[in-house]
Amino acid sequence: MTQTKSYLVSPLEQISSLAFNLDLSPNECLLGIRNVLTSRQSTIDKCRNNLIELENSFQPVEQDNAYYSALEIKSRKLQNRAAGIIKLADFTGDKELINAIRYFQTRDIMENTAPVGFLSDQEQKYLRDDKGNFRISLYKAVLFLKVAEALKSGSLSLPYSYKYRQLNDYLIPEEQWRTKRDVYIKQAGLEDLVDIEKLLFISVKELKISYEKVNQLVLIHKCNPMNLFS
Asked: Which residues, other chains included, contact 77 with Cβ-Cβ below 8 Å and sequence gap of 6+?
């Protein structure tokens, strides 16, 4: 308390003493307050910076608490929409997330042994309340959101879905490509692109001709080359 008094309270007491001193004129009072603030400027700046740092450290925590509390409240509505789908769907991809999905699919009642490896250490902290109880509704809501995010990013896929399959599943199987390569190329009308050396030779020739035309126009018009394209 002594440190706090000398650190912040002492200047405030001096200012208060000056402000309520009836023997001082307004100008004397103002001058005295200015002298206190000037002499204690480094202390005031240090206190202000510490308060700002403390405030900034609390803001993310408060925001996270508010977010997860709201998510827990809305969990029931989210469960009604997503639980049945996730129970029946067949997922592949991220092992930690798949582990949590499998756990959810095989249990009617969630317990505090539910896998949490798909969450960050910070996210895991919010899964327990102040008494250490596992927040089951919050766990389910976070799980569903993580599944949605993973499907969008491609780290999770649905083998029987056209939109959310793994990238390789959209490609022609390698063996099939080897045996039917010419057929596919002809169907796509890409015969002229098969011979890369020929393609590059033609492209270089066309590019050279284009450069020559531009250079000629520059010489004729004696202008900035960029003006030719404006």
From this structure: none
Q: Which residues of 20-47 are buried (b: 16+ CB within 10 A; e: fewer)?
A: eeeeeeeeebeebbeebeeebeeebeee
Mean pLDDT within 108-112: 84
Q: Residue 162: which pLDDT band, with cuts at 50, 70 and 90?
A: low
Angle between helices 136-153 and 41-73 (to 10 degrees): 90
Contacts of 137 (CB under 8 A, 6+ apart): 72, 75, 76, 79
pTM: 0.50
State the Cα–Cα distance between residues 194 and 190, nearest whole angstrom.
7
Residues 16 and 102 in one domain: no
Same domain? For 109 and 195 the reply is no
Q: Is residue 69 part of a domain?
A: no
Range of the domain at 132: 74-169
Claim to verify: residue 148 and residue 86 sit in the same structural domain: yes
Total domains in the chain come to 3
Domain final residue pick, 146, 169, 192 = 169
